């Protein structure tokens, strides 16, 4: 039987409502401002299965980094047929993870790399505990991993969404960043999208993920070291330099996208907000509105580089939950290993073993290629203008 829970009103006329899956996991529906879905949602009628034990993590004493050992992930779905898509709305023949039709749905991963949070003697006891070096140190992988379903469609990616739907996904990122950052022992929240089998994607359904870590990730720790060395204006100075240079791709009132000066990957794009915001939760409604259009243009341009879709990782780097909030700025880092129409860059000896990168394409050439591709995409697949939200939308739902 459907029931009507509390409906939260978010920015841009978007609403959300939270439910539980049969095994107790959370699922949150985010509805477009012009959604035609009914307010009620059916309960998950599946027979609940036991949830896997929380993963554990082990410290590498050579680097101090933590490696999560999540054996339950071995059993996750791998390129299932379309009729058994686990992210499509449930049907009599497809007992998927999402009980209802939806616009955007976010739910706890069935086989998470981190979490759910449990009270255990081996939990991390603050950041100092995790930064100490020892032999055979273990801790419980507390945290949380969520799946973000961009659309009920069975194929596609963020770039294939409408502007309205893209805006709803961005709202979901902001709201989940706010909620996840408040969880016990969560130190950093990371929204991302893996796209393409070349990246290792196991589901064709348009979706992304959000990881919530119990530690500050190695990449962010390196960034903090750079800020300590350079000073707190690092992001502002990078943005100013790139806006004045030849690697700029897109610039709006609130966001700029560019190929970075020291790009590692054949395709690498960074995007920064013009003012300092630590994460999605700090962005304004106007910033989210503009991002929906600019981000779609960028992704469609990346796909227009060649005749076939481009594999990529779209990584939204955010400040840690409780430290360096005034120094670390929200930033997209989109990377692709595709160095030609029929060639991929593989991380071999120097990159994989030593972390010493060798670029294949000069960043300035890559920027020109991307500008041309964005122009082609703008003609072939123009992004629709931002829709105004009638004041009666919320009242009628």
Automatic annotation (TrEMBL):
SUPFAM superfamilies recorded: HIT-like (SSF54197)
Protein name: Galactose-1-phosphate uridylyltransferase
Catalytic function, reaction form: alpha-D-galactose 1-phosphate + UDP-alpha-D-glucose = alpha-D-glucose 1-phosphate + UDP-alpha-D-galactose
Domain Galactose-1-phosphate uridyl transferase C-terminal: 233-327
Family, per entry: Belongs to the galactose-1-phosphate uridylyltransferase type 1 family.
Record keyword Aminoacyl-tRNA synthetase present: no
Pathway: Carbohydrate metabolism; galactose metabolism
Originating species: Paramicrobacterium chengjingii
Domain Galactose-1-phosphate uridyl transferase N-terminal intervals: 57-216
UniProt enzyme class: transferase
EC number: 2.7.7.12
Assigned keywords, A-Z: Carbohydrate metabolism, Galactose metabolism, Metal-binding, Nucleotidyltransferase, Transferase, Zinc
Region annotation (Disordered) ranges: 30-62
GO molecular function, one term: nucleotidyltransferase activity
CC cofactor: Zn(2+)
